[in-house]
Design goal:
- By secondary structure, the chain is of the alpha/beta class.
- About 55% of the residues lie in helices and about 15% in strands.
- It contains 8 helices and 5 strands.
- The protein has a 5-stranded parallel β-sheet, with helices on both faces.
- It is globular.
- The N and C termini lie close together (about 5 Å).
Length: about 200
């Protein structure tokens, strides 16, 4: 397994960041160079954009500006981090990528899907070899988030109706691209989910 891009997706509380870290650890333990990145972020510009997107300010980005900010952060991370890592044969794991924009800005915000899909080749220019969507009910998401004891950021503060639309967006993306996007039940044990993801990742080699 070398020079391959993988991504994990899910609504808040799904455990995607935990699973991304577990996958990176498991692959490193097998001798692979692994680059673990988060979206938006993982570059100087990306982290500054992230702070704008997640800050609960009195003048938040309108949906169209939000879409373009995510696209700008994505263009930066792909050119600065993802492509160089892939070229040297590393495994790149992204905590969110293009499918998040399809789900959050397309279904969550109601922006035209054709516009979002048209941005993908400009901002990203590539798709992961495999994406895992950790599916979680809105009720379970709320329960998990309430137990964190952390202040919610702007995206986490959205209503459950927004999260429900986002979840449907992810499921629609999986229906459109079943060969790439795999839906996993996020209520399973952390160890069982990690084992499934690792086995599927290794099968891509």
């Amino acid at each position: 397994m070398s020079g391959i891009l993988l991504s994990l997706e899910g609504i808040d509380g799904s455990g995607k960041s935990t699973q991304a870290a577990l996958l990176a650890e498991a692959l490193r333990g097998r001798g692979h160079e692994v680059v673990l990145l988060r979206e938006p972020g993982s570059t100087g510009l990306g982290e500054r954009i992230r702070s704008i997107l997640l800050d609960r300010s009195e003048d938040p980005p309108v949906p169209e500006a939000e879409l373009l900010l995510f696209a700008a952060a994505r263009a930066q991370i792909v050119r600065r981090q993802v492509l160089p890592a892939l070229e040297r044969g590393a495994v790149v794991i992204l905590d969110r990528f293009v499918d998040a924009t399809f789900a959050y800005q397309g279904f969550g915000r109601g922006l035209p899907l054709e516009s979002i899909l048209a941005l993908e080749p400009i901002a990203a220019g590539l798709l992961p070899a495999r994406t895992w969507f950790l599916d979680l009910s809105i009720e379970e998401s709320a329960r998990r988030r309430s137990g964190r004891g952390e202040a919610a950021d702007r995206m986490e503060s959205e209503a459950d109706s927004f999260r429900s639309r986002v979840r449907e967006g992810y499921l629609e993306r999986a229906r459109r691209d079943p060969g790439r996007v795999r839906v996993l039940d996020a209520t399973g044990s952390r160890e069982a989910i990690a084992a499934t993801i690792l086995a599927q990742a290794l099968a891509l080699a």
